[in-house]
Design a protein that fits this description.
heterodimer, A: 333 residues, alpha/beta, Isopropylmalate Dehydrogenase, 2 domains, 12 strands, B: 100 residues, Alpha-Beta Plaits, seven-stranded antiparallel sheet, 1 helix, globular
């Protein structure tokens, strides 16, 4: 069965990464009808908005998308196209699986956790004022409904994937009202899942524990800003942003993306690591119900890395396309 | 020069409010919810919070009394506002963010 999926090729090295994903998915014999959409610097250069309305409309209609990194034009008052897409499409759950991969150097062995980051509220509502000439004021906006849907999503995921525990991460000892609401709702929802162990941690303590007791943690759920920071910390523990996948889920739409930037200085050099976008595509395959294809692609990717075929960021010399061909060859075998 | 040009008025209402487009020289520029524009459309297909941010701006500087009058006018129309943030420009540059 053919799946309709929206595709944003992105800026900088984005198109090279997408080509690598296309090579691998073709070898996995997944039938995808790609619907190409514009966004990012490329859209601006074509005289359009950074995220054109037709792009969000089509994503909303199709319901699934794969997005390569985009570039935010600097110094022209543009906001992030990634945040714009998340907010316009109400992609409230940013999900970042983090696990050790064969051949990827990291001191954090047997890492295996999933971070749920609230994606639409908090300081990322980006409501800011100069209250006087000397005082800046950012509004940290947290709603009960926003807390509930991300916390419930984390517990539901944990139950579905047989995860050991869910930990709520907050700073309620200082922000007693906003984070206090998140914590109160976390504890209330946790009672509905007695089969899943749960507790809460203060975000600074959580960061310390991640680098000392990472094997304790299975699922973390947190607010937007903490999630941004903790998920990049965890990506570093995994081996870097080049191998860290990401997914953004809403009620009616899901958008899969590598979490790294567009690396414009490497554009056209066939050099960057496609692993993050490939693993994001695996999350997309899961979402599409293509479980076997997802397992096949992940297996081929791990076999390739395990053989020592790596791009420069992991200490290897494979090109972007060469790495994709090596993964594809495992699928064809 | 730090000059007053309008106000964000946050209302307590579960739905996107139907507000006057103009109150004196102040024009309703947008209504946002959680930092995302919901008026003028299109709006995201999400359940909004009960705290819409309603921005009234003028093309020319306004007085504190004009902002007071705006708040009083909305109160008289039956809206309950819970926060009012005055909007300034610093040497002509917006000293406030815009919604997504």
């Amino acid at each position: 069965m053919s799946h309709k999926v929206c595709l944003i090729r992105g800026d900088g090295t984005g198109p090279e990464l997408v080509a690598a994903v296309e090579t691998v998915l073709a070898a996995a014999k997944v039938d995808i009808d790609w619907i190409e959409l514009e966004a990012g610097l490329k859209a601006v250069e074509a005289g359009k908005a950074l995220v054109p309305e037709e792009t969000t409309d089509r994503l909303r209609e199709v319901g699934v998308g794969l997005k390569a990194p985009m570039t935010t034009p600097i110094g022209q008052g543009y906001v992030s196209p990634n945040v714009t897409l998340r907010k316009k499409l109400e992609l409230f759950a940013c999900v970042r699986p983090v696990r050790s991969l064969p051949g990827v150097p990291t001191p954090f062995h047997d890492l295996d956790m999933v971070i749920f980051r609230e994606n639409t509220e908090d300081l990322y509502a980006q409501i800011e004022y100069m209250a006087t000439e000397h005082v800046a004021h950012s509004v940290k906006l947290i709603s009960d409904a926003g807390c509930e849907r991300i916390i419930r999503a984390a517990f539901e995921y944990a139950r579905r994937h047989k995860r050991r525990n869910v930990v709520g991460v907050h700073k309620a000892n200082i922000m007693k009202i906003a984070d206090g609401m998140f914590l109160r709702i976390f504890k209330k929802i946790a009672e509905e899942y007695p089969d899943i162990e749960s507790w809460d941690n203060i975000v600074d303590n959580q960061c310390m524990q991640l680098v000392t007791k990472w094997k304790l943690y299975s699922v973390l759920v947190t607010l937007n800003l903490y999630g941004d920071i903790v998920s990049d910390l965890a990506a570093g523990m995994m081996g870097g942003l080049g191998v860290a996948p990401g997914a953004n889920y809403g009620e009616k739409c899901a958008l899969f993306e590598a979490v790294h930037g567009s690396a414009p200085k490497y554009t056209g050099m066939n050099k960057v690591n496609p692993t993050a976008l490939l693993l994001s595509a695996c999350l997309m395959l899961d979402h599409l119900g293509e479980t076997k294809a997802r397992q096949d692609v992940e297996g081929a990717l791990e076999a390739t890395l395990g053989e020592g075929v790596k791009t420069y960021d992991l200490g290897g010399s494979a090109t972007t396309s060469g790495f994709a061909e090596a993964v594809a060859s495992h699928l064809k075998a | 020069m730090f000059t007053l040009y309008g106000a964000d008025i946050y209302l307590r209402t579960p739905k996107t409010p139907d507000l006057p487009g103009e109150v004196g020289t102040l024009r309703l520029v947008f209504i946002a919810n959680r930092g995302t524009r919901v008026f003028p459309p299109p709006a995201p297909e999400a359940e909004p919070t009960d705290w819409p941010q309603c921005r009234y701006l003028s093309d020319v500087p306004v007085t504190d009394e004009q902002v007071d009058a705006l708040a009083a006018h909305l109160t008289a129309l039956g809206w309950q506002w819970t926060k009012l943030q005055k909007l300034f420009k610093n040497d002509g540059v917006d000293a406030f963010s815009k919604p997504y």
